[in-house]
Amino acid sequence: MRSAKITSTSQLIPITSMIEDTLQAADQGNIAWRRSPAAVKAVGDTLTMVQALQKQLESQPQEASEVENILRAALEQLKAFPPNSGGELTQYIEILDEMQEMQDNLTREDLIAYQELQKAVLARHKELQQSPQQVTGAFSPNSSESGLKSPQYSTAVPPNTPALRADNGDQPPALVRDDEDDEGEPSRPIPDEEQVVARMLFQMIDKLQRQRFTNPELDAFEKILKRLSSEPLHAEVGQVLAIADELVGVHRSQNVADSLKQSRENSVSPKQTQEAPVAQKESADEEADEEADEEEGVPNGFANELGLLPRIHERLSLPDFIQTTTLFEIKCISKILHQLSLSHDVQSNSSLTTAVESAKVLFSQHMQQYSGSAKEGASVLVPTILTGMDVEDADGHKLRQFTVAGGEEEDEYTVNETFLTEAFKNPVDVKPASEDVQASWAGRSRAILFCVEEYPEGSENGTALAELMMLHDTLDKRHGFDIISVVDDKLSLEEARRLISEVVQEKPSRLLVYFHSPMPPLIAPAPKAFTFFDNTVLFHSDVLALCEGVPSVAILHDRSKALDIIGAVDGKKSRSISVALTEGAAQVANTSRCWLFDGIFTPLVVELLGREDDTPTTLCPEDVINFAVTSLTAHPIALGASYSGDEGLSAGFWVTADATA
């Protein structure tokens, strides 16, 4: 008895009965055990142990049996979703009938749960009797309350669930498998009590497929599912439970999406359409109160960031979240959930608050595993190949082009080994800016972020503004830039040129011009140029011409599936370098490494500029391309080094803000 696993006082009944039967048999056999001190002591010790164990069990919470869990789950479901007809009440009557056949094996706790469910069923039946037209099938007019008899029951089976069969008219439906075991014999039958669980689950699935439920109602479903899954289930029953659980998740995601839509309609101002671009300027020296300040570095950026919540929920539900997520993405999720939880828009919306808090709980659970993971900080490998070439345009301007291919397209590309060998040999360490130059950057570092939205319904259909919000925050807080963010789907070439010229007239020492094209233009884009809504273009070389007189200039252009860069130091223009993804490579990258955002390259730029590990403290413009290449391929490239030899790309440009203070 010391080694037996006894968790209920009901389990002690057969033990005491066995002791009594043994002693009675000894007396009938004229065994004088009472004359033996050792025998008397053994019997006394055993009875004392039983009594002590009984007191111990009575003083602590009892672990519910599988039968009790089924009955409690049924009771919770009946209370949360009261049947509206006799037909709906039938499933609970059948549970009682099923358990009544097992009454000889029911514990005291099981019987209490049985009586509570029976009482609730009878009470609901009385309520339904007030509307006789709804009472069909559950009770015959002459039935008595003490004898609950149910008619033959037919379960509606949702798609993609195991089949049901009825062995005969007196038995409930039974789960069956279409396959057989290795010996060709039918799979082992499912226990009767789990048949009851399966029927309850099918009823739940049917409800979830027929109507929408609020988050509190979904909480009730989850409580029931948790109770039903507290004991190991037959594999087939477990599959049905997984389907029900998945449907609850689908409802929650839909509720989140509806809340997001409603929040946008109520809280987000319409996109401005005046001729002048939407611009917002912030000083790098301002320290905003995170909990109270609702100003955005990027217009409408918060609403766009809120749209990331459903995909965060979806990803957190995956068991391999840790294995398929980079440290950068984990930091992004942590920051986004923190910002959303502080937002007044979220705090004033109970559905959004619930969605954010549930995501934070899931995220915290994953982080408990991540803290001890050997993969911490490691990049997720992307199965792609790298090739490229050096070309020269009609004006004699040099261009280095990298191409990343993936998926089935790999066979269509030949790796240019000669080019790769030449492109990455003899690296030159980044030339750090002098202390005087870095001192001149303090308060005189400017950045202009352009985004021409080309989504049919605006920013809510993509993540471009959320990406720019991250870039804005990194440039501001880590690299000391004063930033102007321009978001306008009707931005004209003239307006862009005028804004750049106005910034140049302020005589900055360091200038970044960043173009973000979340969707490619309808016509073939001009090479090395930013295309506007009316198909006019602003060439990167023309931007450098507008920036004449600025000591250090870098131009980056995220073209959705390509990234271009060109720079200049003291008027000396560099070559252009680009990295482009094929459709296959973009799909591989989005699903394996860059899943949080629609874009690929802007998040990579943010990741590089926000790194705090062994990344060199001074980076050059070319490092952006090199980091993108090494992140999206298996080709290792050292950071803090230039392979092009162009001063406009190899001079120090990215330096943390404390170094320029």
TrEMBL record:
Extent of Acidic residues compositional bias: 284-297
Q: What is the name attached to this protein's record? A: Uncharacterized protein
Q: Where is this region: Disordered?
A: 128-194, 258-302
Q: Where is the composition biased (Polar residues)?
A: 129-158, 265-275
